Amino acid sequence: xxxxxxxxxxHRWLGIGMCxxxxxxxxxxxxxxYVSFPELSKQERYAGLANLNPEHIVFSSSALLASAxxxxxxxxxxxxxxxxxxxxxxxxxxxxxxxxxxxxxxxLTDFSAAAATASALHFYQLQHPGQxxxxxxxxxxxxDQWTVSSGLSDHRPLHLVSFDDPASTQLYxxxxxxxxxxxxxxxxxxxxxxxxxxxxIYPLQLRQHTNLWVNVIITxxxxxxxxxxxxxxxxxxxxxxxxxxxxxxxTPYRGIYKYHHVLGLASLVFLTTFMFSGLMSMSPWGLFDxxxxxxxxxxxxxxxxxxVKSEPVYSTIAELQYMLGQDQNIATKEMTWHxxxxxxxxxxxxxxxxxxxxxxxxxxxxxEGTSLEGKIQQRISSLIPNAEILSQHRLExxxxxxxxxxxxxxxxxxxxxxxxxxxxxxxHIDLLTGQILSRLTYKNRVxxxxxxxxxxxxxxxxxxxxxxxxxLLLTLCSIGLVFSVTSLVLGWGRLRKRIKAI
Length: 502
Prior knowledge:
Elements: H1 3-32, H2 42-47, H3 62-66, E1 74-82, E2 85-92, E3 98-101, H4 113-127, E4 135-141, E5 158-163, E6 170-174, E7 180-184, H5 186-193, H6 196-199, H7 204-207, H8 210-237, H9 256-266, H10 268-280, H11 294-302, H12 317-324, E8 334-340, E9 343-349, E10 356-358, H13 372-379, E11 389-395, E12 414-419, E13 426-430, E14 436-440, H14 442-456, H15 460-463, H16 468-501
Helix pairs in contact: 1-8, 1-16, 8-9, 8-10, 9-16, 10-14
């Protein structure tokens, strides 16, 4: 078989096999621009948490910390609430959450269905004051269509609680902590069935097998890319600018074939980059994997040279009550302890404001700290000890590598630190708390452009000037959808002829 014949046949049957899938990707992509996959945002979560009442803090976290193995690495210590009750939550590396009620000192056991329903109802009522609803426990589950995220693994099994409100809200409650960890509404569920679930090929039966799902997406993306590239080659081979076809046309085709030919060539660049960037979203074959361990780098930043951590500051009852009662105008929802160079620090979180850092002061007094940046400066070199710090830059606004889009919250200001290591690593550090927010290696930054840049056009000039971003992306997706429809028509016509010939 000649090369040209093989090329034509390959494109024809690849196109017939992929045309419906490619059309679906463009249509669902437009839906995803405005309805994201369900998740509980930080603002939604804080809105559903009770204010921490100093008078209800009767026990410190010492008993909970003492229950942890001495060689266990502490990831997070939080003072939050479940329903109306304050609770300490402790997360150890590689282990499930542990909890202890701050008003009774009793350990938190796995949440029952009744307790989860009560917790979800209180959460909902705080989010929607004055609205009367009935809550119903539907079932206890390990995973369903809306909870496939690995970020929920430490909270499984989950309790699903539904409400009879107009939005048909459903809340997922952790059996480990008793807190609400995800919410969905009827609108989100319906639109995601014609949005993310189709776009990502996300049925639970496939998605729960992560490696299989990844390989399916990679394979389909490669086939789609081959289909588009072969069509582009054929399209250019069939063009004539000098010895034109009958009627002085540059294409030999008529009718729907002509539209397919011309529109395919006109949108070839976008079609190719769209399919290629979709492939890159899966980081195929470990293309964007880092060689160094982010966890080890974090531990070096958090621990001191003896690899130990100090006892949490502001952990006595008097200190906690004093700190929570300081500012009556700001309702604190959570306190979070973290460590820098083995020294503990605490930040206060509320709905109204970003995290507030509290500097350790004498006699339990919370100081407005100006030396947190100094503590960060003393420790950042430990992130990659064998590399030099090339530069540091304070970001007061978002840029191309640190930005908020698609309703994703990211705090400001931050410190960007660049290292001279082999991976050309950048770190982003929250200047309000001192916590490491993210790491970007050179591969990550390349991947950012090959995926986010090419797939969803996350360029600063566009996302900072909406609706320019919306109009451009909708136009391109509409062109891609119309082109895919021409493929569908041609494919169906070819299949129908084959069926009649049988």
